[in-house]
Amino acid sequence: MIKETVITISYWKSFGYLPFVTMCVTMFEYLHLNTVLMTLLVVLMVLDFLSGWYKSYRLNIAITKSRLVAGFYAKIFVFVILIVLGILIVALNEVNPKVVAYLDMTSYISGISFFMILNEIYSILGNIQSGRTQEEIQEIDFITLLIRKVRGKFESKMDCEVKK
């Protein structure tokens, strides 16, 4: 009975995620975001999340619910930036298609996506190196500084909500 319940729950979770994934891919297509780059970014974000767990485990850093949620929100923030830029392209295209064609906005978004992918790879490598050497490595780049600032705001908000 327990085994059948676990199998049923795992199938339910699998099919529950399918509409969400389909919605995201459809939204990326509509907003002229490169779905291959977006998929790669999602995979790298998951790997970064896992490598962050590895680093925390090796450095004996407590993994709290507020840190996990703040990290998740920080990753979502990256997609919010890309989605807002995609909405801007669609809106500009409705107003004046020549502006979007002249500025080649989709290439700009692909460039930003590629930059974020490189940032995730850099973060993964930093987490792995920190875990291997058991020493904190300082990551210094613009996106990491921005994400840390946003993450800090989310963590402080989560800590305030937990204390209430």
User: Could you give the order of the helices and strands?
Assistant: HHHHHH
Percent of sequence in beta strands:
under 5%
Work out the count of structural domains: 1
Helix percentage: over 70%
State the secondary-structure class: mainly alpha
Structure explained in plain terms:
This protein is 87% helix and 0% strand. It is mainly α. The protein has one domain (31-163). The chain is elongated, with a radius of gyration of 19 Å.
Summarize, please.
The chain is mostly helical and 164 residues long. It has helices spanning 2-30, 35-58, 65-95, 97-103, 105-133, 142-163.
Mind sketching the topology for me?
Blueprint: H1 2-30, H2 35-58, H3 65-95, H4 97-103, H5 105-133, H6 142-163
Helix pairs in contact: 2-5, 3-4, 3-5, 3-6
List keywords for this structure.
single chain; 164 residues; mainly alpha; 6 helices; 0% strand; disordered N terminus
